[in-house]
Design goal:
single chain, extended
């Protein structure tokens, strides 16, 4: 209870978190890019410190950072979940055997759909999306467009694959 209060206090949310975020992000960028030269850790830290202090001094910049942090955290988590699932699909087993490329593509698409549906369900938007897709008036044209798009992609894949077969047989 006390920890919740400390972590969600105005001091933490509006001063400490944005300061740490900007400082660490800028320091990492300066260290990685080596804009100021090799082994310039002190200069990088002073520049990062001053930029972080300036950013929390101005309310507009601070509000942008505070409003962006939750979105960044959720987005990074969703991307991490997808990359973990993709790692399972794209990895090789102990003997070095790889999964067929078409199977990998299919499993990657399934993983992406799984992540998208999971995010929709977890955010509480499933009923809204479901009614928009299947119940509301006008959902028919949506499915017609999706079917047309799928047919176009299918034709595109068939044309591209048939062109590859001719080149390899010659």
């Amino acid at each position: 209870m006390v920890l919740e209060t400390i972590l969600s206090s105005d001091l933490a949310v509006y001063i400490i978190y944005p300061f740490l975020f900007v400082f660490v992000l800028l320091f990492a960028i300066l260290e990685k890019s080596k804009i100021l030269g090799e082994d310039k850790h002190q200069i990088n830290s002073v520049i990062s410190l001053s930029m972080a202090l300036i950013s929390i001094a101005f309310p507009w910049a601070r509000e942008v950072i505070v409003n962006l942090m939750p979105f960044l955290a959720v987005s990074a988590t969703v991307i991490l979940v997808f990359l973990i699932l993709y790692g399972f699909v794209a990895s090789t087993n102990d003997k070095g055997l790889e999964i067929n490329k078409n199977v990998q593509i299919g499993l990657t698409v399934l993983a992406a759909l799984f992540v998208i549906v999971t995010v929709i369900v977890v955010t509480g938007q499933w009923n809204r999306v479901y009614s928009w897709l299947f119940i509301d008036y006008g959902s028919g044209p949506i499915w017609g467009n999706i079917l047309l798009f799928a047919i176009i992609i299918g034709v595109f894949v068939v044309v591209l694959n048939s062109g590859k077969g001719k080149k390899s047989s010659e």
